[in-house]
Amino acid sequence: MGGAIAIKRTLYAALCEIECGVFYVSYPESDPDTGKLATYQTGTSAADAKRRIEFIARAVGYDAVIWTQTITPPLFASHGKAAGRQPAFT
Fold first, then answer.
1. Which backbone phi and psi does 9 adopt, to 5 degrees?
2. What is the DSSP string of 37-77?
3. Residues 30, 21: Cα–Cα separation, whole Å
4. Edge-to-edge order in the sheet of strand 64-69
5. pLDDT(83) > 80
6. DSSP code of 20?
7. What confidence score (pLDDT) does residue 66 get?
8. Closest CA to 27 of 18, 14, 40
9. How far apart are CA 16 and CA 28, in angstroms?
10. What pLDDT score was predicted for residue 43?
11. 40 backbone φψ class: left, alpha, beta (φ>0; ψ -120 to 50)
């Protein structure tokens, strides 16, 4: 008698409030499915933002979310190219 083994998927995420009611969520770069999840989430509290992200995570196949609370906002400049001044006339 063989039985199927259920593979549980756990999402690791860090939450930081960057503005009143606006939260930034970061995920490990090694997890390929995090592209389906939001990086910004609004909420009345951190718990509210976490509930919303956990709901979406379950919808895309995660069984659990392990949270890390941070007080340091992420380095946004590392996610893209810094905007430079463009000349008015060429």
1. -110, 125
2. S-SEEE-SSHHHHHHHHHHHHHHTT-SEEEEEE-SSPP-GG
3. 28
4. 40-42, 22-26, 10-19, 64-69
5. no
6. T
7. 93
8. 14
9. 15
10. 86
11. beta
Q: What is the pLDDT of residues 51-72, one digit of tens each?
A: 999 999 999 899 999 998 676 6
Number of C-beta neighbours around residue 66 at 10 A? 9
Dihedral angle sign, alpha carbons of residues 54, 60, 66, 67: negative
In contact, 16 and 73? CB cutoff 8 Å: yes
Pair of tokens at residue 63 = 């069984």
Q: How far apart are CA 81 and CA 63, in angstroms?
A: 35
Could you give the CA distance from residue 10 to residue 29 in angstroms, rounded to a whole number? 14
Enter the pTM of the model: 0.67
